[in-house]
Design brief:
CATH superfamily of the largest domain: Butyryl-CoA Dehydrogenase, subunit A, domain 2
Strand content: 5-15%
Radius of gyration: 21 Å
Structural class: alpha+beta
CATH class of the largest domain: Mainly Beta
Helix content: 40-55%
Number of strands: 8
Largest sheet: 4 strands, mixed
Order of helices and strands: HHHHHEEEEEEEEHHHHHHH
CATH topology of the largest domain: Butyryl-CoA Dehydrogenase, subunit A, domain 2
CATH architecture of the largest domain: Beta Barrel
Oligomer: single chain
Distance between the termini: 42 Å
Number of helices: 12
Shape: globular
Length: about 350
């Protein structure tokens, strides 16, 4: 279904209602929701593979589903009264997020906060019932997370990128709005590891242990889709002697994509069960950033030596290629930042 609707969603720059219902039925939004609210307390590896598989049909759908799941994990750190507001009617609440602290401002008020600001890239916001917005306390203070209903913000149509076009990653504006204390927490409390002997791993792990890994899943699925589309287009006559360059390109790109799949699966297993150490977090960040770049390089390599313009290639290939490159250029997957974190987060004596 997602594959059938993907071309039109790409053109409309918005997911279809039919797609949204299918995402809810598949359990993306509820994946990390605590069991007490009817959620799945799910694993990182399950979400990673479900997202990658869906991205083979539509990377925009997979991106939104993955983020709605991830933001449910974040919302599970809110105080219980806020969780009741978000999930009291059911666990399939879609939650969008604007996580750039510099985009907003918060002032303390009796029993809560006055929050305002603009957040530039908020994926899936048109279809979200709640938003998590990050803003610094007062002037230059520590950042806090604020949960606000979706109808509290104004959405500006600003997302017109070549890739992930149907994610609707638009800018949102919140005019000064009162947010009660129970719908807020420090950003550090959302990101850090948490001690809870009885809690599911998804609710105790630090955000960066699996965050970038999950963001790579749509790129992996899109790269597989691009490879499939390219192979379908060039397959006639591929055995001919003069097609040796294409055969080599196919072998190398497919091997690189398979290798990334194995690398990220190992990272997902580590996120679910390995001891949480600075080295484990840094290693997963490294693997995610390197994987995103390798996927972009693998798909791009398929067009090298082609006599026709890349625009003349299969429409599915072009969409998937743009999706991979858009994910790979996301700031959270910066290889420079991941390399610095890896160098800093690997204690002496810990295996590289």
């Amino acid at each position: 279904m997602a594959a059938r609707l993907a071309p039109d969603a790409h053109t409309r720059r918005r997911l279809h209602e039919e797609t949204l219902r299918a995402l809810d039925e598949a359990g993306f939004a509820r994946h990390f929701v605590p069991g007490r609210w009817g959620g799945g307390d799910g694993t990182f590896r399950e979400l990673f593979h479900a997202t990658a598989a869906l991205a083979e049909s539509c990377a925009s759908t997979a991106w939104c589903g993955m983020l709605w799941a991830t933001h449910g994990r974040f919302a599970a750190r809110l105080p219980p009264p806020a969780q009741r507001e978000v999930w009291g009617a059911g666990p399939d609440t879609r939650i969008a997020a604007g996580l750039r602290p510099s985009s907003g401002r918060a002032r303390k008020a009796p029993r809560g906060w006055l929050v305002e600001g603009r957040w530039p890239v908020v994926s899936g916001v048109h279809h979200a019932a709640w938003l998590l917005l990050v803003a610094p306390e007062d002037e230059g203070g520590p950042a806090r997370v604020f949960a606000v209903p979706g109808d509290a913000v104004a959405v500006s149509d600003t997302w017109d990128a070549a890739g992930l076009r149907a994610t609707g990653s638009h800018r949102v504006t919140l005019t000064e709005t009162f947010v009660p204390e129970h719908r807020s927490l420090p950003l550090s409390a959302l990101l850090e590891a948490r001690e809870d002997r009885d809690g599911a791993r998804c609710h105790t792990a630090p955000a960066h242990l699996a965050g970038q890994l999950l963001m790579c899943a749509p790129a992996l699925g899109a790269a597989r889709a691009a490879l499939r589309a390219w192979t379908r287009q060039v397959r006639p006559g591929l055995e001919a002697p003069q097609q040796a360059p294409r055969r080599l390109g196919l072998a190398r790109a497919s091997a690189d994509i398979d290798a990334v799949g194995l690398l990220l699966d190992a990272a997902a297993r580590r996120a679910d069960s390995a001891p949480v150490t600075p080295g484990a977090v840094a290693r997963n960040q490294r693997d995610a950033a390197v994987s995103a770049q390798r996927l972009a390089d693998a798909v791009s390599s398929l067009t090298q030596g082609e006599t026709s313009s890349p625009d003349a290639l299969d429409g599915e290939f072009r969409r998937s290629w743009d999706d991979v490159r858009t994910v790979a250029t996301h700031g959270a997957l910066s290889l420079d930042a991941a390399a610095a974190a890896y160098a800093a987060g690997l204690p002496a004596g810990e295996r590289p």
